[in-house]
Amino acid sequence: MSTLRLHRQGEAPLEVLQDKALAGRDASCDVVVVDKSVSRRHAYLERRGEGWAVVDQGSANGTFLDGKPVTDAPLRQGQELRFGMVSLRVEIESDLPQTMMMPAGTVEPPATMLMPNPSFEAPPAPKPPVAPSRPMPPPAPPAPQPASARRPAEPPPPRALTPTEEAAAFLGLGPGTSQEAVARRFEEMSSDIQAKVQTAPTPALRDRYQRNLDELRKACETLAPGFGGGSPRVEDLPSAQPSVSPDDMDVSIPAPLRAAPASAAAASPAATGAPPPATTAIGFLVATILALSAFFCMSNQKMQKTYKANQKSSDRNQAKAAAEQFGAMASLEQVGALVAGQLKICNKAAVPVEVKWLGAVYLETTASGDSKVKSYNSDNCRGEFNLTLAPGSEEKIALKGTSEKCNWNGQGLFYALALKDPRAPDSFLRSSGTLNNRQDCVTIGEGL
Amino acid sequence: MSKPPTPKPRPAGPKKFGTSTWIAAAFLLPALATAGYFGRNWNATRLILAREDSEHQERLNRNAVLSKVYDVLQNKKLQVCNKSQDTLKIQWVAAAYHDGKNLRVFDSGRCSAWQEVTLASGDNRVLTLTSAQEGCNWNGAVVYFAMRFSRESEEVIRHYNYVAHYSGFDRDCYTQE
């Protein structure tokens, strides 16, 4: 029989007593390595014949031998075994009479420390098996390994332990321990696990811790029936090896959670109840968009009410009706039908031409800004109207009289005039036309 | 001596994405679609309302201008009512009217088909002229007009020249009393 000792610089060496010991950060491990880089159930240390081997249990930060990552490798004297960031020197002694575990050192967290199970006492020599209160199932078979990972020559399996021995090994007590000692041991070990059950971040972990607690309770019940620690909830009895394999443990925990450090997990949004920042940002965005939608919806309804009110508005309807009525005038307005033009008479005759009568229609803008249509009639100004145009002359008409009706500046919309015919003094030549926007000459006397 | 490989890095800090992130993101698309739908409707209504307001204001402004044009340039029928005791003889008439696009002028002096119109006392007539001559086919439409007419009694014949904006006078009639 060989003994495996693990040395860490500045720490007391640790001897592995079991044929198969679980190393990890979890308090329920056979070899507890308290360091954040070490998984809760990191690796098994197995006795194989006269030697030892390490089997990684899917740890997050890996198991290394002399710097090389390994999953299942034999241990040799003087090798450097590293769990995550924790380096241990391997010492194997082949002539020790029995495997034993050394007491823990006194290094306090948070410094990395290596310690055995708390309050561990070396088990006494095995006694004849005691019949358990209930039949115990055989120990859980080891997790299947890929064929390529198996060693070509498997060592013979270790001797099967009785349920009482397994329970005693699980608790680190002797098979004949009193109920009080078992109860104390239960209190010691269960307090930590119960705390973990209370603070487990996921339901899967909570179930796992609860099963560990149940196994602890069953082990105590097996070792000292009626020890007072409560009745177990499940039927199968505990074994010295954890019934939950590390593989299952790792699978049950989501990969991101396993990769996250414990402190980070504790401070994660799920633990604190706060959503991730991205959720907050997207949620805020969604809320903003929904608020915008609500604004659009309500504003749209309000505008549609306004639109309907406008449709029924008498003011608008009157304006529309008027616009339809005035529609025909739009083109006339565009051609300047009400824009006054200047009356300019051009005498094209070779003789003087006398204008006997002149009439015009014009717009007069009142002081209030309104327009009023007025007319000028030279018959109303008989003593004052006297207009004779010399041959070839051009004259802008602007008439001034004593009375208001005889004043006209020549700006008008329509004109009509009567010329005395030089060829027949008793007859008149008449002409008429529009003046709106007109700038050219009104020609008279052509052909005379 | 070879340097030992560094362990796998661990993510630090809280998770940036989680299930809640994806749930929130799942709401993002419907929210965007809803906002887009309501936004389009809102914008369409806003544009319609703005266009209505703009058109109404423009209509009011146009109406203000066109009402003057309408009041002045409305075509009427040139009707002469003789309510005098004399016989009314219209030798010449000129009328400005519009055809909807431009102002036009009818001048009887340029139309060979025009004949003096005689209205006995109490008679009334819409002045028109039907002729193939250019500018001489006139249905009596009038905005402005000028006339030379005479009132003949047994004692005297008086001649008048008249020009005005035709507003119908008495019962849409140019009335001589």
Question: Can you describe this structure?
Answer:
The complex is a heterodimer of chains A (448) and B (177). Chain A has ten helices and 22 strands. Chain A is rod-shaped, with a radius of gyration of 58 Å. In chain A, the strands form five sheets. Chain A has a six-stranded antiparallel β-sheet with strand order 2-1-11-10-7-8, with no helix packed on it. With 448 residues, chain A is of the alpha+beta class. The termini of chain A are far apart. In chain A, a hairpin with a 6-residue loop joins β1 and β2 (14-16). Chain B folds into two domains: 19-68; 76-176, no CATH class. With 177 residues, chain B is α+β, with helices and mostly antiparallel strands. In chain B, 25% of the residues are buried. The mean pLDDT of chain B is 85. In chain B, strands 3, 4, 5, 8 and 9 form a five-stranded antiparallel β-sheet that branches. The chains are: A alpha+beta (448), B alpha+beta (177). At the A-B interface, α8, α9, α10, β15 and β16 of A face α1, β3, β4, β8 and β9 of B.
Mean pLDDT reading of chain B: 85
Oligomer: heterodimer
- Main β sheet profile of chain B: 5 strands, antiparallel
Number of extended strands of chain B: 10
Distance N to C terminus of chain B: 138 Å
Q: Largest sheet of chain A, if any?
A: 6 strands, antiparallel
Separation of the first and last Cα atoms of chain A: 155 Å
Low-pLDDT stretches of chain A = 96-158, 230-267
Secondary structure tally, helices of chain B: 1
Radius of gyration of chain B: 41 Å
Query: What's the number of structural domains of chain B?
Result: 2
- Computed structural class of chain A: alpha+beta
Q: Round the mean pLDDT of chain A to the nearest integer and report it.
A: 75
- The percentage helix of chain B is 25-40%
Number of helices of chain A: 10
Largest interface: A-B, 80 and 70 residues
User: How large is the radius of gyration of chain A?
Assistant: 58 Å
| C-alpha geometry of chain B | rod-shaped
Q: Any idea what the shape of chain A is? A: rod-shaped
Secondary-structure class of chain B: alpha+beta
